[in-house]
Amino acid sequence: MTARTSRVLHRSLRETPPKAIGGDGIYLIAEDGRRVIDASGGAAVSCLGHQHPRVIAAIAKQTSQLAYAHTAFFSSEPAEALAEVLVGHEPGGLAYAYFVSGGSEAVEASIKLARQYFIERGEPQRQHFIARRQSYHGNTLGALAAGGNAWRRAPYAPLLSSAFSHVSPAFTYHEKHESETDAQFVARLAAELEAEFQRLGPDTVAAFLAEPVVGATAGAVTAPEGYFKAVRAICDRHGALLILDEVMSGMGRTGTTHAWEQEGVAPDIQAIAKGLGGGYQPIGAMLASKRIIDTIRAGSGAFQHGHTYLAHPLACAAALAVQDVIREDGLLAQVRERGRQLEQRLTERFGNHRHVGDIRGRGLFWAIELVADRAARTPFDPALKLHQKIKAEALASGLGCYPGGGTVDGVRGDHVLLAPPYITSAQEIDLIVDKLGAAVDNVLDNINH
Ligand code: PLP
């Protein structure tokens, strides 16, 4: 990091990051010519790597035809075609797509649609949303209130709506008791969710909101078998909706288009974003079931929400091209195959590592969790800022990964998230694990001495 004057309000006010000036497949190129492997796709965004020629061509073509038309007046070819691709076959009953500019907007729209649906059904008392601790749903105030990411919420707590409450995450490594089977753990989590419905009044709950695979907050946490079936059943019993946030875990990242396909349930509303456009344009979407939209069509006739850049033609054209490439190049199968390789290589490298307590994930979405003591599963002292040190060390060696802190409870715990592009080769997977192993060991050596 070089100290320079910049008028951009960067994430850190103390340092200006180097400029990225190019991209080449899974590599990002910095202004000094350094090539960095984008092994986390930024934040699980870059599914096709950088500068994919078919996506670039699609954006150029759309730019030359029409950049923008307001959705109060016009629809556009790319928006119509993208909606067909996503929900034309009504996966899990999801039949309509609402295109926004990112994940937080997709979550905000999901929350508001759920609320409006119940008003139009004549159930205006449904105004509570239940979500989970150790989750992230975005940084706008509604999405932040829904999220259970303690450190992100803390400064804004007085502004966050009390409509949202939180239950325990399905976080096997930290939340499952040693004496419990997976089934008993699921039953305990289900009982806790049921108790929360009862505490609020079951007919006052609009929806339960969760990430099928928890991303940045806890590090690629998959739920135990049967968990999502259990929460779906509770929502159904009480007439509440299930909203799944697949902003990070969706659009192929876990090896199926939707992460929920591997859970045996489908949501009523779903948020997607990162892998939808792969970073080529800012885009997210809310997918909604036919039942919900039909109810609103028969009632007020309009979803009372909106943004200036809804269904932006360039964003939709880019996402359409990204989704075409994923399908035509058979990249879901590649995610599954490379995912198995990544799991195997991580297990070989870190399975017996004294400071790696857990290796978890699915598809090309994996994390290692760092612990001071493996047997007791105790995290490192947060003051060490281990995750930040690993990020810097990895970057210096040409590896971009996504370490995070507060893994256990929002304060304690460190993990490193990997989400390489779907086009990553077998050799590149090996390189990623080698570089990560070296970065982790170098940092731990310095801490231990
Ligand atoms: N939901 C989840 C699960 C996310 O991982 C994120 C971003 O990391 C968001 C929502 C918010 O998306 P955005 O940063 O595009 O607003």
Word description of this protein:
The chain is α/β, with parallel strands linked by helices and about 450 residues long. The chain has two domains: about 20-50 and about 330-449, Aspartate Aminotransferase, domain 1; about 55-330, Aspartate Aminotransferase, domain 2 (3-Layer(aba) Sandwich), CATH 3.40.640.10. The chain has helices spanning about 40-45, 55-65, 75-85, 105-120, 140-145, 150-155, 170-175, 180-200, 225-240, 275, 290-300, 315-330, 330-350, 385-395, 425-449; strands spanning about 20-25, 25-30, 35-40, 95-100, 130, 165, 205-210, 215, 220, 240-245, 270, 285-290, 355-360, 365-370, 400, 400-405, 415-420. A seven-stranded mixed beta sheet has the order 4-12-11-10-7-5-6, sandwiched between helices. Strands 1-2-3-15 form a four-stranded mixed beta sheet. A four-stranded antiparallel beta sheet has the order 13-14-17-16. The model has no long low-confidence stretch (mean pLDDT about 95). The structure holds pyridoxal-5'-phosphate. Pyridoxal-5'-phosphate binds near residues 43, 216 and 273.
How many discrete domains? 2
Low-confidence stretches: none
Assign a percent range to the helix content: 25-40%
**What is the overall shape?**
globular
What class would the helix/strand composition place it in?
Answer: alpha/beta
- What is the makeup of the main sheet? 7 strands, mixed
Name of the CATH first level of the largest domain? Alpha Beta
DSSP strand (E) fraction? 15-25%
Oligomer: single chain
